[in-house]
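Chapter summary example.
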Amino acid sequence: MESLKKLLNRFPIVLDTAKVIKVENDYCQVVTIDNKKEFFDCSFNAVVENKTDKLVIIPKVGSLVTIGTYQKNNKAVILSVSEVEKIYFRNEKSEFTFDGSGFQFNRDGENLKEVLNGFQDGFGKLCDELAKVVVSIGVTPDVPAI
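The structure predicted for these 146 residues follows.
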């Protein structure tokens, strides 16, 4: 238990509420609601070493966020958001983006929209070909045509 306390005290963090001023790439600019502190490179995630597999929740500009500030280096990280602008997820071969305009899903370089459009086009062509089939009533291999 003592080793856990040492580990937790290694990076003491202070919680605060802030307003999002600007969003850029993987960082945003926030100002605390009491206007005492401003952070120009507030990270969306506490762990930024992983560049390939990640989940990023991007807050709306003007919304309130809960931030944690590290006392030793005066850096801030977003812990929770009140309003979401965009959610982005990437894991190995999959990539997912969800925002106000809809969603986009990619896997192995293929876009879900393109795959579904290709399926719809192919199914439409199949329906067109089936519409051309003529079946005469009463004609089978056992019954001659009239």
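To summarize the output: The chain has a mean pLDDT of 83.
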